[in-house]
């Protein structure tokens, strides 16, 4: 592996990358197999056994092909036993595309075995390829475009992957810069090298003599063709435009997922992409929901262990949302419990416990603490906690309201309204919320909640909190009426 | 009153159902604008509450359509309430408390009585 600083011009860096590719005999050789496979596959006169022969010439490729075509990804009823069968059943073109993807990724596997920025880069490449392979058939309305989508996604990420491979210092600097400035890694690469991701990938495609179609495609990603209303594009141009949009969408979604984005950020991305891609409702969601299983299968095929995807990604899978444990159903069951407790005239303490459970387990807050005003009403003291925090005893938690160090709690008490922002009880509290406990002007305390992971409180969750606050008020009113 | 509530988010639909039923109203839920249009033409409602941001037929299109064929009062539920000062329907800022919901319902309830 080479190393370089980021003091050189963009042209010098690209030149170094091309030299590294030339020097590395293995990679261009594999790329030549890819090009040869694609050339043979695009000629309808090519006999199937010629493709088989070429695949078998590349060490270990045949074994890996059989492993992939028999994986759950292809959902075959009967196993495929030989490469010849694979050629017949998948078609020459599909198989050539599949080989290309495998060969290109196989190269990087040994370098991604540790939890390094390179491993994260390879993970993003795989995710973009997989997502592009599921989105593309939908935008092109052609199920056969799966492999083209896969390869196009891989080629879009190829430049950065090779940059990270040959010049790890440059990539790691960009990675750290992205984390420090909370910007996408691709933006940090641009800031450091003066090159866009597409520019780097385009140079790599040229250097490896890969089909020029992919250069056109990347141009489309960087500068999408503007189509006037009612304008009809030639079929090929229209396909390139749609494919460009699909892989760009796949890259943008995987960037959010790979770089620590929350579910809300992915939701936001889905909403804007739906309009751009003109996709029916649910298509993007189910493609994203299928990612964890596809990713695990893929990693197992290339014998690589990469960090799993964030748990929320699986929630996009329609099958998982039908499970009894879905977020909405879980929330509903907790709120129903509060209502039942209220209707049954249960004691306030029991209702507050149900509320805390709804916030902790239904709304997924990490720490939920019941804080009650003391006799002098100058301090608020902890009584009970759901969730865990090392070395924290809720009964020893005391907040002086004259000098509140926890603004979210003070704001909720002052305004007698639920609050969703402000510094929380712990250094990693983000976001925070506080629900006042009281009826009318009579306040007795607050229920404090926070998350550790920065996952924002969605509008619908705020709506639920306000509903819960209403239920608490009703419970306290009912209690005071019973006392009267 | 017999109310039609339209929101693509099941959690919000559930919250609205519980809040409205506890205020003594009868509630029909719909998950999108197209389904709400079908329900509206096949049943009689005193009032329609709709979310603004929904896929395909959004809340504004739905309420505009309802206003074009009936006098049924409509309430738009939205987080950006400032944009709709001059609209032909009441606006309820999200997230809302049951008290805020009741205030808006009471204001349109008087309209329902006048219309009847």
What does this molecule look like?
The complex is a heterodimer of chains A (484) and B (116). Chain A has helices at residues 10-23, 26-42, 48-57, 61-69, 83-90, 92-106, 117-140, 146-166, 168-181, 185-193, 197-207, 213-222, 235-258, 263-277, 283-289, 291-301, 318-321, 327-343, 348-362, 407-415, 459-483, and strands spanning 367-373, 379-386, 398-400, 432-439, 442-450. With 484 residues, chain A is α+β, with helices and mostly antiparallel strands. Chain A has a 5-stranded antiparallel sheet with strand order 3-2-1-5-4, sandwiched between helices. Chain A is elongated. Residues 1-5 and 321-325 of chain A have low confidence and may be disordered. The radius of gyration of chain B is 13 Å and the shape is globular. The two termini of chain B are 12 Å apart. In chain B, strands 2-1-3-4-5 form a 5-stranded parallel sheet, with helices on both faces. Helix content of chain B is 45%, strand content 21%. In chain B, helix 3 (59-69) links the parallel strand 3 and strand 4. The interface between A and B is medium-sized, with 19 and 17 residues.
Largest interface: chains, residues each: A-B, 19 and 17 residues
Q: Would you count the extended β strands of chain A for me?
A: 5
Q: How many structural domains are formed by the residues of chain B?
A: 1
SSE order of chain B, as H and E? EHEHEHEEH
Going by helix content, strand content and strand pairing, the class of chain A is alpha+beta
Q: What is the CA-based Rg of chain A, rounded?
A: 28 Å
**Shape annotation of chain A:** elongated
Kindly estimate the percentage of residues of chain A that lie in beta strands according to DSSP. 5-15%
Low-confidence stretches of chain B: none
Give the biggest beta sheet of chain B: 5 strands, parallel
Structural class of chain B: alpha/beta
Basic shape of chain B: globular
Helix share, percent of chain B? 40-55%
Report, as a whole number of angstroms, the end-to-end distance of chain B.
Answer: 12 Å
Overall pLDDT confidence of chain A = 80
Unreliable stretches covering 5 or more consecutive residues of chain A: 1-5, 321-325
Q: What is the assembly state of the chains in this entry?
A: heterodimer
Task: Give the strand line-up of the largest sheet of chain A.
Answer: 3-2-1-5-4
Task: Describe the main β-sheet of chain A briefly.
Answer: 5 strands, antiparallel
CATH classification, class level of chain B: Alpha Beta
CATH-defined architecture of chain B = 3-Layer(aba) Sandwich
């Amino acid at each position: 592996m080479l190393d370089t600083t980021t003091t050189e011009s963009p042209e010098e860096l690209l030149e170094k990358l091309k030299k590294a590719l030339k020097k590395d005999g293995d990679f261009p050789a594999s790329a030549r197999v890819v090009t040869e496979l694609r050339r043979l596959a695009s000629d309808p006169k090519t006999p199937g056994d010629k493709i088989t022969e070429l695949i078998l010439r590349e060490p270990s490729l045949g074994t890996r092909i059989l492993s992939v075509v028999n994986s759950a990804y292809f959902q075959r009823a009967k196993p495929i036993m030989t490469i010849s069968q694979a050629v017949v059943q998948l078609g020459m073109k599909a198989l050539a595309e599949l080989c290309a993807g495998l060969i290109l990724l196989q190269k990087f596997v040994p370098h991604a075995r540790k939890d390094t920025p390179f491993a994260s880069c390879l993970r993003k490449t795989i995710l973009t390829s997989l997502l592009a392979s599921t989105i593309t058939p939908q935008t092109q309305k052609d199920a056969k475009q799966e492999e083209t989508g896969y390869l196009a996604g891989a080629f879009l990420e190829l430049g950065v992957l090779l940059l990270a491979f040959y010049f790890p210092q440059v990539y790691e600097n960009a990675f750290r810069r992205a984390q420090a400035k909370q910007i996408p890694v691709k933006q940090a690469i641009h800031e450091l090298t003066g090159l866009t991701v597409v520019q780097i990938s385009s140079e790599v495609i040229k250097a490896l003599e890969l089909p020029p179609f992919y250069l056109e495609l990347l141009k489309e990603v960087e500068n999408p063709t503007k189509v006037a209303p009612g304008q009809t594009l030639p079929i090929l141009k229209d396909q390139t435009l749609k494919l460009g949009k699909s892989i760009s969408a796949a890259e943008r979604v995987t960037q959010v997922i790979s770089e620590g984005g929350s579910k809300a950020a992915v939701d936001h991305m889905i909403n804007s992409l739906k309009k751009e891609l003109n996709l029916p409702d649910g298509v993007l969601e189910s493609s994203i929901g299928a990612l964890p299983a596809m990713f695990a299968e893929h990693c197992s095929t290339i014998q690589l262990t990469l960090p799993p995807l964030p748990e929320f990604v699986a929630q996009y899978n329609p099958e998982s949302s039908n499970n009894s444990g879905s977020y909405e159903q879980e929330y509903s069951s907790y709120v129903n419990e509060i209502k039942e407790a209220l209707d049954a005239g249960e004691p306030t303490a029991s209702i507050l416990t149900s509320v805390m459970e709804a916030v902790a387990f239904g709304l997924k807050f990490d720490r939920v603490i019941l804080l009650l005003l003391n006799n002098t009403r100058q301090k608020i003291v902890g009584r009970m906690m759901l969730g865990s925090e090392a070395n924290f005893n809720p009964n020893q938690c005391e907040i002086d309201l004259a000098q509140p160090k926890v603004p979210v709690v003070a704001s909720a008490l002052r305004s007698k309204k639920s609050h969703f922002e402000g510094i929380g009880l712990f250094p990693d509290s983000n976001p925070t919320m506080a629900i006042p406990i009281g009826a009318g002007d009579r306040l007795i305390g607050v229920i404090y909640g926070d998350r550790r992971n920065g996952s924002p409180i969605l509008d619908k969750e705020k709506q639920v909190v306000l509903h819960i606050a209403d239920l608490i008020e009703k419970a306290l009113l009912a209690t005071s009426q019973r006392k009267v | 009153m017999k109310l039609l509530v339209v929101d693509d988010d099941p959690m919000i639909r559930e919250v609205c159902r519980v809040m409205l039923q506890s205020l003594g109203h009868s509630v029909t839920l719909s998950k999108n604008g197209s389904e709400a249009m079908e329900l509206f033409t096949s049943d009689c409602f005193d009032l329609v509450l709709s979310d603004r941001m929904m896929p395909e037929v959004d809340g504004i299109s739905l309420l505009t359509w309802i206003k074009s064929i009936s006098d049924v009062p409509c309430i738009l539920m939205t987080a950006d309430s400032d944009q709709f000062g001059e609209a032909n329907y009441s606006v309820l800022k999200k997230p809302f408390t049951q008290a805020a919901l009741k205030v808006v319902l009471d204001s349109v309830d008087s309209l329902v009585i006048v219309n009847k």
